[in-house]
TrEMBL record:
Domain of life from the UniProt record: Eukaryota
One Pfam family it belongs to: Siva
Protein species of origin: Propithecus coquereli
Any GO molecular function: CD27 receptor binding
UniProt name for this protein: SIVA1 apoptosis inducing factor
Single biological process term from Gene Ontology: extrinsic apoptotic signaling pathway
Length: 110
């Protein structure tokens, strides 16, 4: 018995992988707001957050790698209170509440 054909062949859009970079984001629906978050009014590039690439709005840096962080990406370690970024921190979801752990404390929890 032959395979049944797709009933939506003509109407279905192609499902291709699309790379979305800064150029595409700046031209999108929220392009103006995105451009303001990344660039200063003077036109010079500001310091970008190492986790989400938004403009850094404070002086928070990761305690492990010393990369700049915006206030949305700052995670305080549950064990020692150190600031950790998304690359250096580990989120433990095994309990009811999520716990962020720095790499030093994560070694002892494992």
């Amino acid at each position: 018995m032959p395979k049944r054909g797709c009933p939506f062949a003509a109407a279905a859009p192609l499902q291709l992988k699309v790379r979305v970079g800064q150029k595409e984001l700046s031209r999108g629906v929220c392009g103006e707001r995105y451009s303001r978050e990344i660039f200063d009014p003077s036109g010079a590039a500001s310091v970008a957050c190492s986790s989400c690439v938004r403009a850094v709005d404070g002086k928070a840096v990761c305690g492990q790698c010393e990369r700049a962080l915006c206030r949305r990406c700052v995670r305080a370690c549950w064990g020692c209170g150190a600031v950790a970024c998304a690359l250096c921190g580990l989120v433990d979801c095994s309990d009811i509440y999520e716990k962020a752990l720095c790499t030093s404390c994560a070694m002892f929890e494992a």
